[in-house]
Amino acid sequence: VYACNKLFLDQLCRNEERWRVDLVCSAKERILYYQETHLLPYLMTQMSQKNIASFLHMAPETFSKLLHKL
């Protein structure tokens, strides 16, 4: 039971951190955060850039421009 509770709390903390990133960070900072957490490279193999941009709360054009600058 303890292991299950620990996993739940770990996931809750990650979700809270992602919520803060999505709410507070600029578009560029969101891309950098998701690159550092290795989620963005995975998403790039699974989803279209349009859907990733939506996930990151930005226009597809903004995502494309920032991605090429980084």
Notes on the protein architecture:
By secondary structure, the protein is an all-alpha fold. It is 83% helix and 0% strand. It contains 5 helices and no strands. Helix 4 packs across helix 5. It is globular, with a radius of gyration of 14 Å. The mean pLDDT is 81.
The value of Rg in angstroms is 14 Å
Biggest sheet descriptor: none
Could you say which structural class the secondary elements and strand pairing correspond to? mainly alpha
Helix proportion: over 70%
Strand tally: 0
Uncertain spans: none
Question: Could you list some keywords that capture this structure?
Answer:
70 residues; mainly alpha; 83% helix; 0% strand; globular
Q: In brief, what are we looking at here?
A:
83% of the residues lie in helices and 0% in strands. It has 70 residues and is mainly α.
Would you spell out the secondary-structure blueprint of this structure?
Elements: H1 2-24, H2 27-36, H3 39-46, H4 49-55, H5 60-69
